[in-house]
Amino acid sequence: MFGYLPPDLLTNAELAKIVDTSDEWICEMVGIRNIGSFDVQAACSGFVYALTIAAQFIETGAFDKIVVVGADKMSAIIDYTDRATCVLFGDGAGAILVEPNKKYGIVDALIRADGAGMPHLHQKAGGSRMPPTAETVAKRLHYVHQEGAAVYKFAIARMAEVATELMQRNRLSPTDVDWLVPHQANKRIIEATAERMKLDPKQVMITIHKYGNTTAATIPLCLWDYESKLKAGDRMILAAFGGGFTWGGVYMTWAYDG
Questions:
Q1: What pTM did the predictor assign?
Q2: Domains along the sequence of the chain with CATH
């Protein structure tokens, strides 16, 4: 094991000089919650990653109910002078409740990542690798950088790859799949993924024309938007692809009539 702490020490007394607080209040209140929560960072694939984690907590019996939330505020990091990105992204949030069910639920999942894709879709500055400075702001490095052609090629290949692998592992033919729930990157990627899976367009959820690419929120927003059309037992393939690169898929059966 190894540990490290920075040398500077910010005491409770010093915090009390900055904000309206006290040492007693901090000791009594900070850290008290009755449920756990944490953030999963996987860009547009974040919801699929988080759903996979939630399923494992349910399967082990550690928890009975878990809320998985996909939310992003992309408008804060979009350059609205860049036509390649500003027409794509939107802000949004969606959430689902995961709980034990002997008949329906998450059957199988795959998550993947390849850091070699980072140069094609990332934010140049703002993290620990390049913290924000006056210079990084002046150089406009705090916006999403995307190389469309490379992302398009990889997104189609990887989303179709995880989707077809899930179908093969679970012995599903295209007619066995009721819905493809794809990340809403753009309509061409969605259509190309469905074509490679040999799915009818009627089996594909599409909301990008309404909400744009809301990154980690696109899949739960699809489920929310199509909820009235869903039936208990509907077989779904969720597929996502995001910056970094990250990608993943989930095979699940829907648990109730919309």
A1: 0.85
A2: 43-253 (3.40.47.10)
